[in-house]
Amino acid sequence: MNYTDEYVERVYAGVLGKIIGVYLGRPVEGWSYERITAEIGEVDTFLQQRRGVPLIAADDDISGTFTFLRALPDHGNSIEITPRQIGHTWLNYIIPNRSILWWGGLGISTEHTAFLRLCCGIPAPQSGSMALNGPVMAEQIGAQIFIDGWAMVAPGDPELAAELARRAASVSHDGAAVHAAQVLAAMEALAFVETDRLKLVAAGLAVIPKDSIIRRLIEDIREWWAAEPDWRRARQKLDDQYGYSKFPGNCHVVPNHGLIILAFIYGDDDFRRTLTIVNTCGWDTDCNSGNLGCLMGIKNGLAGIDGSAADWRMAVADRLYLPTADSGRVITDALRETYEIVNIGRALRQWPPLLPKDVARFHFEAEGAVQGFQVASGVAGGERLQLKNVAGHSRLGRRSLAICYKGVTAEEPAAIATPVFLPPETLASKGGDTYTLMASPTLYSGQLVSWGAVAGEGNRHPVEGRLFIDTFDAQDRPTRLFAPPVVFLPGAYRQASWQVPDTAGQPITAVGLTITPPSGEAPGEAGETGDISGVIYLDYLTWSGSPRIFLGPQPGGGHMWRHMWVNAVDHWRAAGAFNMCQNEGIGLLICGSGEWVDYRATATLRSNLAKAFGLAVRVGGLRHYYALLLTDQDKVQLVRRRSDAEEAEVLEEKSFVWEKGAAYRFELAVSGSILTALVDGRPVLSTFTTLAIPDPAPLSRGGGVAFYCEEGQLSSAGIAVSPV
Q: Residue 353's pLDDT band (boundaries 50, 70, 90)?
């Protein structure tokens, strides 16, 4: 297999298959086969519109899959990664009771139970063991739900995939649940180089014990398929012999793994038919469909998805959410996650990373990729405006996004946009029954947006392209701010940059591009009919630098700024100012993104009671930051927390007597490896240091800001962030 183009394409198809499968199964999650067939018939298309809910939503099946794989880059992309280290990754990214997991409680939710074990200092794999948690808890479905990424970093190597899957699964599960995860991982890894379905199933069986119930289940399904051509009758056999009545718990792995294998074998090697079968069968539909969609995507590539009668990709437009404590990575897309996975897989082989178009955020370097771009709100689409990923028309790569426009005018421009934050209608919404969709924007005031595009050589008329951002005014009303126009003559390639203007602390929700006639051109100058039609090929769009922004309440009284913060403290009130408390351990209130590398953060803080309180920078999770703190031992400290370390490391410490309830101005600046800290304008320390974590990519050293509160209370008016 080609470990560049072909590898990227198959991983991209796997990622798309995963999210399409989850979105397809999500509306009927937990339904029985009987209810689905009675109320719907077959689940062969997205049902969200029928049910009046958004198609793109936070889902634990997606969040866990792509988040837990970060254990590899966070621990140096070592092939020897341990369950204990993967457990550290859980503790860094999971916000207790709010993100990724089903928070059903100790002894009810397997993942919640394992997470509580980790928090109590019980390391993996003991945290997920049958000996500690019992067989019912240990053999629920979660391990196989999150396993796809571990297979995609081991293309063509089912043994390695199964071993990585075993380590990852054992953080929370044991027994049959681990075996099921290993089977899927082995099948997906081999699917990069093998197309025969039965050979893939055999590869899965080869990595689990001969006496595993998962082996017996799969062998029975193969026998049914050989004798019974009707998948519905086979499903009934599965229900009779391996159904929920036979296996206790909220969602046991055995019945659901059986449905994955059944649909895979009976699906005629067709993406849509396979997902239709597994979703119509019921039970844990989104989980089963997500795993199976990933497997089918890897196996048959993009052609298998695009060849379906359903246009899955136009509806999804690559969009997904990964709500974690890494606040700036929540808003993402399928192609971005694809390259994260591909570069982990390459790093495991000690190959250099692939960095399309000089690490541009939007580069479109995969067939069909739109990276969230759609017709902008308030603009007519249809025949007037269409988007298509095409080969060529790029100076930095091999593909571009074609923006095909027809009949544009100054009053009716062509406009496209991609989200950089949560849509207004989803702010503070629940991603599921028990986890909240929280995120920080990926773009901020003061950052530099750069883009390049070329006008079609066949265009008859020049046009203007203008970048824009969508944000809110002081009263929380949506507003659009524009960059200066760039004129495109037919065939001309143009590059431009724009420093994002001040949004008065309000979040930016989208970035986009409008196409209009050149300013001052009178109607009719474009021709007798006034018709301006053509194509602009967007080569790339990206941004860089640190912001210049005040993160906090604004004079206008709006409240949208509150949604920019990812809440990992026990209690937070923001009525005119921040007021938060943490009952036990360390709590963070986080805002920002990984593009923030070198910057200064300033805040005035008060505490009536705290073990420690302060300001953190380069925050990449709950266990990845620098922090300037005042402690209850009358000390000022500069600490570094690494995601792979058990405890924070005190880099510098000095005596500092502080008064409860008094205001103290904290300033913490970071530039490369140099940290500068001031309290009330007094330089308390300046030290040379480096992040003591592996640095496989430059952005891994960046991160946002946070209020730090350890067992106590903290209040502030906000945090000012500026470049150094």
A: very high
Domain residue extents for the chain = 5-327, 356-544, 565-723
d(CA 456, CA 491): 5
| C-beta neighbour count of 390 within 10 angstroms | 16
595-613 pLDDT tens trace: 999 999 999 999 999 999 9
At the top level of CATH, which class does the domain 565-723 belong to? mainly beta
Q: Is the pLDDT of residue 699 over 50?
A: no
Asked if CATH classification 3.40.50.720 holds for the domain at 5-327, the reply, yes or no, is no
- What spatial distance separates the first Cα and last Cα of the chain, rounded to whole Å? 46
- Written as six digits, the tokens of 60 are 């634990």
| In contact, 70 and 329? CB cutoff 8 Å | no
Helix or strand run (H / E) with residue 54: none
Cis previous bond, 356, omega within 30: no
How far apart are alpha carbons 714 and 389 in whole angstroms? 49
Mean pLDDT of the chain: 92
| Domain 356-544 annotated CATH 2.60.120.260 | yes
Buried b (16+ CB within 10 A) or exposed e, 52-67: eeebbbbbbbbbbbbb
* Structural element, H or E, at residue 644: none
Token pair belonging to 563: 């949604």
Q: Which residues, in sequence order, are bridge partners of residue 566?
A: 590
pLDDT at 523: 45
Please tell me if the domain spanning 5-327 has the same topology as the one spanning 356-544. Answer: no
**Alpha-carbon separation of residue 644 from 590, 615, 623, 648, 693 (angstroms):** 20, 21, 8, 10, 8
Residue recorded with tokens 């949506």: 478
Stretch (H or E) spanning 191 = none
Nearest alpha-carbon partner for 437 in 536, 542, 331: 331
Give, in order, the Cα–Cα distances in Å from 330 to each of 192, 361, 621, 661, 693. 28, 14, 12, 35, 22
d(CA 619, CA 596): 9
Give the Cα separation of 541 and 391 in Å (integer). 17
Q: Phi-psi region for residue 459, left (φ > 0), alpha (ψ -120 to 50) or beta? A: beta
Closest CA to 407 of 452, 460, 457: 460
Residue 271 to residue 295: CA distance in whole angstroms: 10
For the question of whether the overall pTM of this predicted structure is more than 0.90, the answer is yes
pLDDT for residue 686? 55
Q: Which amino acid is at 665?
A: R
Contact criterion met (CB below 8 Å) for 483 and 508:
no
What is the Cα–Cα distance from 524 to 531, expressed in whole angstroms?
8
Largest CA distance in the chain: 81
Joined tokens for residue 544: 């860089």
Residue whose tokens read 């080969």: 391
If you write DSSP's letter for every residue of 683-703 in order, what string do you get? EEEEEE---SS--SSGGGG--
Residues in the chain, overall count = 724
C-alpha distances (whole Å) from 237 to each of 233, 244, 262 are 6, 13, 11
* Residue in this structure with the two tokens 């053509």, named with its chain if needed: 534
Complete DSSP assignment for 403-446? EEE-S--SSS-EEEEEESS--GGGTT-BSSSS-B-----S--TT
pLDDT tens digits, one per residue of 525-565: 444 445 789 999 999 999 999 999 999 988 877 889 999 99
For 57-110, the three-class secondary structure string (H helix, E strand, C coil) is CCCHHHHHHHHHCCHHHHCCCCCCCCHHHHHHHHHHHCCCCCCCCCCCCCCCCH
CA pseudo-torsion sign 73, 76, 81, 85? negative
